[in-house]
Design brief:
The chain is globular. The longest helix has 17 residues, at 192-208. It has helices at residues 29-35, 63-77, 89-98, 119-128, 138-148, 157-164, 184-189, 192-208, 226-234, 256-267; strands at residues 3-6, 14-18, 40-44, 82-87, 105-111, 134-135, 168-171, 174-177, 213-218, 240-244. α2 packs across α3 and α5 (138-148) crosses α6. It has a 7-stranded mixed sheet with strand order 1-3-2-4-5-9-10, sandwiched between helices. It has a 3-stranded antiparallel sheet with strand order 6-8-7. The mean pLDDT is 94. The protein has a single domain (3-130, 179-267), classed as Rossmann fold (3-Layer(aba) Sandwich). Helix content is 39%, strand content 18%. It is α/β, with parallel strands linked by helices.
């Protein structure tokens, strides 16, 4: 597993930041810089993404594998407790880990995801994950991603470029997205019955969470509904909630107001 690390390597206060389905740890560069004075910040590339290895069997690109990998990562870091920021898939991994008995997670930030996911958003994501796409140069990639991901709400082209460039890799004379297209295999193989069973498992894990929890929602999100957000505030850890206006799925945590929301929760004392 590849990961990017910020802050003092001997700091016992560790923050792990975990990205979304097709993304990588470099998504958190700005948040990591902001948190590095207080934390050792570790931003892994989940298996199949970025600098981490690809799996031989794509059917292992599933949540139990991701949770097990993070348990191994935390053991490697040699710390008893960590704080956690997870965007989309990274938030689900956080729920999976925080819902275990004797979980190492001390404080949990779940960014624009929950145990219940909107079916239309899942279909939308299924349309592009694993798709064969390439770009003649970096600017073409920035143009494309800033268009299809416009709901992220980044205001400047340089913001988009900062987000997009680390997620590209060279493929001959062209550029492609830096993840294994086979991560789509289990995603596309899911059935309504499997989705319903997974939701029950996620709610059960969520209800087991005992650590202080913040759930962030993009106010225009099509993945995490306002109803599910309210339910997450009422059950399990009775999460604090925060909505980011003018943003869809998922807030990038790159903008000053978003970073301030995370900092306040992680450093702001008791639940």
């Amino acid at each position: 597993m590849g990961y990017t690390e910020w802050g003092a390597a001997d700091n016992r206060r560790v923050l792990i930041c975990v990205h979304g389905l097709t993304r990588l740890g470099r998504d958190f560069d700005r948040l990591a810089r902001a948190m590095a004075p207080e934390y050792r910040v570790v931003c892994p590339d989940v298996v199949g993404r970025g600098r981490s290895d690809y799996l031989r069997d794509p059917m292992h690109y599933i949540m139990p594998q991701y949770v097990a990998d993070m348990v191994t990562l935390i053991a490697r870091l040699n710390v008893e407790q960590v704080d956690w920021v997870g965007t989309s898939m990274g938030g689900l991994i956080g729920i999976g880990l925080a819902g275990q008995a004797n979980s190492p997670i001390r404080r949990l930030v779940i960014n624009d995801v929950g145990p219940r996911l909107d079916a239309a958003a899942i279909a939308r994501i299924g349309d592009y994950v694993g798709a064969s796409i390439s770009f003649s140069d970096v600017d073409e990639a920035v143009d494309y991603i800033s268009t299809i991901a416009a709901p992220l709400g980044l205001p400047r082209r340089e913001d988009w470029r900062e987000l997009v460039v680390p997620g590209l890799k060279r493929d001959g004379a062209r550029w492609t997205l830096h993840y294994d297209p086979h991560i789509a295999v289990p995603f596309k193989a899911s059935t309504p019955e499997r989705t319903s069973a997974d939701e029950k498992i996620l709610w059960s894990l969520y209800d087991n969470i005992r650590c202080p929890t913040l759930v962030i929602r993009g106010a225009n999100s099509d993945l995490l509904s306002r109803e599910t957000l309210s339910e997450m505030a009422a059950r399990g850890p009775k999460a604090r909630t925060s909505e980011i206006f003018g943003v869809g799925h998922a807030p990038t945590l790159m903008l000053a107001n978003e970073i301030a929301t995370v900092r306040k929760f992680l450093l702001g004392g008791t639940h």
